[in-house]
Amino acid sequence: MAERADVAPVLSREWDGGAYPYGVGHKKLGMWLFILSDSLTFSALLIGYSYVRVAARTWPTPFRFWPSVVFATVMTLLLLSSSLTMVRAVSAAQRGDRRAAVRNIIWTMLGGLGFIVLHLNEWFGLIHEGVRLWQNPWGVPLFGATFFTLTGLHMTHVASGLVYLTVVAVGFARGRYDSEDVEVSGLYWHFVDLVWMFIFPLVYLLSVGGK
Amino acid sequence: MEANATNHDRLFSMVWLVLLALTAVEVVLAYIQPLSTAGMLAILMVLSLVKAALIMAYFMHLRFEKKSLVLSLIPFATIVIALLFVFFPDGFRALHLGVNQR
Lengths: 211, 102
Known about the structure:
heterodimer, A: mainly alpha
């Protein structure tokens, strides 16, 4: 982050913030703004789901503790652990240890991949049981719509994250990207993890139907 | 920042363990089902907010950022998300007036 001598004095006179009022580069600020807007998208979906669930007289609780909730818990474990390897990748990148950074990004991606595999398995199971966007065997057609929309958008984020991390890992290994790019991709990954911390209890843990 | 990178790694591992423990509490509550749906919802939301705060503060590094960034992001997000709840009472109205009234 080189200070631009022509800009800094003007801005610091304006509001004492200097050229970097938030103390972060433009990439990081841009990612935070994206995360802000994305958090509103997910909030709207989660609140919409809660709304229709409150407005419905009954709501299907198709997730038995075994296997559904146990698998969802393993998926949570995978995402949380992939966040840990991601922060390790960022600190390795900041130390300048390219090998360790790339290795940790690959671990992160494996966590994300495991998440997607388990989740698709769950999806196909539900589809096999007859759950569709517009109908399911347990009444309240909106169950399928809210479930597939919420978890589908989240899974899309995980899948995009895998593509994003691949690009960053390759670019960082070749020296095309610097540690800030790794850190910014980490922000995205942690956000996807954070969203799951709300989907998991609201969609799964509140719909446990038997052990 | 580079100087205490090892310290930070240990801190992040601790945060990860706390997140796992909070998740375990949630899952155990879902297994033994000691609460009503409303009580369960309240506890799960509190735990989820704590987990989200931990992820943002440590993994997303907000605790170590300048206060101006935090103060621009968090209150804004909180207010707008709270505003989304403005439709929520209508859900209860639908329950009482809706077509599935018996």
